[in-house]
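Exam revision sheet. Question 4 asks you to relate a sequence to its structure. Input first:
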Amino acid sequence: MRSGNPRVRRSWTLQLVASARQPRRVVRETMTFAEREHVSARSAADIERWIPPQTRQRGLQLFDQQFWLWGQDVATVPGNGLVHYGFHRHAPPSGARSTSCYVWEGPVERMTLWGFGLLYAQLGLGSMFLRRYRFAPCLISCDEITPNCWGLEELPRHAAPANATEWGRALELVEATCRWIVAYETWAQQAIGPELRQASLSKWKKRCSSAENLPADWELVADSIHQARESSAVETTDSREQPPRSVVLPPLSHGH
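Answer key, C-alpha cells:
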C-alpha cells in the first residue's frame, strides 16, 4: 500500500475567522440539546431553498455511505486507511462513550472526522459542521477548532446560515468538502485498491454507488453545488434573498 498523501505538506494551527465583522473568539461555547436540534432542523429546512432537492438527496445518500467506508478503512485496511492518508488519530478519554476522532491537516484546510459527523475548515473562509444523516451545513462561530470533542454536546457553538451571504459561504464550504472527498476516494482507488474498496462497499445495504464511480459521483455533487452557489449569487440582488435555479443532474450510478 502506498502510504502518505501529497496534499499533506505540513501541520498548522488553524486560525479561522468566522466573519470579518466578528471579533476573534478564543473560548469555545457549547450548546444545549434543544439548541443543537433547533439549529440542525433549521439548516435542513433552509437548505432546500439553496440546494436543488435532487442534489441534496444524492448528497445525503453518498454522505451516509461515505461514513461507512471511512469506518471500513479504519477496520479492514492494514495499518488503518485513514492514517495512511495522513490523518492523526485522537483516542477518546478513558470512560468516554465515543469513537476516535481523526484529524487531517493540509496547507490551508483541515478535516475532522467523528462517527457523528465531520468538521471542515479552510483558512480565510471559515469552518462548517456537517452532521451525519443530515447533510445540512452549520457554520462554526469560533475561530479555533480542536479535536477534543467526543459528542455533539461538546461541539463549538454553531448555527444554520442566516442570510444569503452566509449561505454563499456555507455552500462554498460544502463544495470544498465534496471535492476533498473526491481527492480521498481517488487516492483510495489506487492505495487501498478497487477490490478491497468494493468488498467494503458490498457490505453496505444502502449503497448508492460502485467503488469505481465514487469520485465521479462526488464530483457531480460538488459541481451541482457550485452551480447553485453561482446562480444564487447572481439572483440575489437588491437585498432580496432568492433561491437558485434548479440544476438537473444525471442519474446516480448504483453499485452491484
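Marking note for examiners. Residues 43 and 160 are 5 Å apart (CA to CA).
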